Amino acid sequence: MNARHVFRTVLMALVASACVVSASHAISGSVRVTVAKAALVFGGGGGRGVLTFRHRNYPFTVQGLSLGVTAGASINRLAGRADYINELSDFSGTYSMVGAGAALVGGVNGVQLKNDKGVIITLQGAKVGVEVSANISTVVITLDRSRSTPD
After folding, report:
1. How far apart are the first and last CA of the chain?
2. Do residues 31 and 95 lie in contact, with contact meaning Cβ atoms separated by under 8 Å?
3. Which domains can be identified in the chain, with CATH numbers?
4. Is 118 left (phi over 0), alpha (psi -120 to 50) or beta?
5. 15, 32, 54, 67: most buried by Cβ count inside 10 Å?
6. pLDDT digits (tens, 9 = 90+) for 3-20
7. DSSP state, residue 95
8. CA 148, CA 146: separation in Å to the nearest integer?
9. pLDDT, mean over the chain
């Protein structure tokens, strides 16, 4: 094996690995959200949150509907992360989730959401109120870019 062949092989391996890393390198952001909801079989709720992405804070609104075994009312204060964001516009949209949880005065809630652009939001936090649920939900998130602030 001559030096030229080794050099070419090493160069090709470096280029190939750089392409793999850059293609799969999506950015994550942190998310904080407060949602109030009430339900009896069909449920509805809404709230506000903040996405921290690329050193800026972007306020957003949340609106959702649920269908399933649900009864009660609660306020959820959740924090977590949003993964697989390529562009800020990927964050807005309709998310689907399947979740289950319970709260009697106070409890813990966790949820994972995914939209059609591949963004996955994983949240957990405190739930206050009286609610029992095992449902399928749809959540619509709308960013308010005009009110973004530096992190």
Report:
1. 54
2. no
3. 26-150 (2.40.128)
4. left
5. 32
6. 555 545 544 544 444 444
7. E
8. 6
9. 76
Q: How far apart are CA 4 and CA 17, in angstroms?
A: 20
Residue 147: exposed, middle, or buried by beta-carbon count in 10 A (0-12, 13-18, 19+)?
exposed
Q: Are 43 and 82 in contact (CB under 8 A)?
A: no
Between these two residues, 130 and 60, which has the higher pLDDT value?
60
Picking from 7, 9, 50, the residue whose alpha carbon sits closest to that of residue 29 is 50
Q: Measured between alpha carbons, how far is 58 from 122 in angstroms, rounded to an integer?
A: 17
- DSSP letter string over 66-97? EEEEEEEEEEEEEEEEEEEESSGGGTSEEEEE
CA-to-CA separations, 97 to 23, 38, 80, 138, 145, in angstroms, rounded: 27, 17, 15, 6, 25
Q: Which token pair is 33?
A: 């959200």
Tens-place pLDDT, residues 16-49: 444 443 335 678 999 999 888 776 656 678 889 9
In terms of Cα–Cα distance, which of 133, 28, 150, 12 is closest to 76? 133
